[in-house]
Amino acid sequence: MSIILYPFNFGSIGSDIDEFFTELEGRLNANSDNIKSAVKNVVPKITGDFHVDLCETDTSIIITCDLPGIEKEDISVKLLNENTLQIKTKYDSEVTKTDEAGTYHMRERKTGAGQRTIRLPADVAKEGVKASFKNGIMEITLPKVVKDDGVTINIE
């Protein structure tokens, strides 16, 4: 007896779970900052439909995504609020059993749409956001909100 292995992609499940916890965090936001930080720190992030690196510097947050085979026009990036970023992609490859090259016996390349909702580790400003896309890699730079420590008053 032989065993046939079928690959299973956990990507879309991870994206759904990321979205669920982002929505849960938004609902809890109105209740308490303690609950919000507990959800943010206890719940792990799970990989979604594509891979993302998130880097924080003193002044900005940099997100890098691997999006091979996707055209720039098929990517949508939206800052939902000061600490949540949403990235959506479309894969417009039509899946058929045959084409001019012959009959396919296996089709593993992704088709359809992908989405990631990313909770950011700090609040970001809407102004000054930059995004670039080259060779299937997208980089988004989000400037962090500068917290005002108040105004210094000179004593005479």
Describe the structure.
This protein is α+β, with helices and mostly antiparallel strands and 156 residues long. The chain has one domain (11-95, 109-143): Immunoglobulin-like. It contains 2 helices and 9 strands; from the N terminus they run H-H-E-E-E-E-E-E-E-E-E. The strands form 3 sheets. Strands 1-2-9-8 form a 4-stranded antiparallel sheet, with no helix packed on it. A 3-stranded antiparallel sheet has the order 3-4-7. Strands 5-6 form a two-stranded antiparallel ribbon.
Summary tags:
156 residues; alpha+beta; Immunoglobulin-like
Question: What's the layout of helices and strands?
Answer:
Layout (H helix, E strand, L loop, with lengths): L10 H19 L3 H10 L9 E5 L3 E7 L8 E7 L2 E8 L6 E2 L2 E2 L8 E8 L10 E5 L2 E7 L13
Antiparallel strand pairs: 1-2, 2-9, 3-4, 4-7, 5-6, 8-9
Helix pairs in contact: 1-2
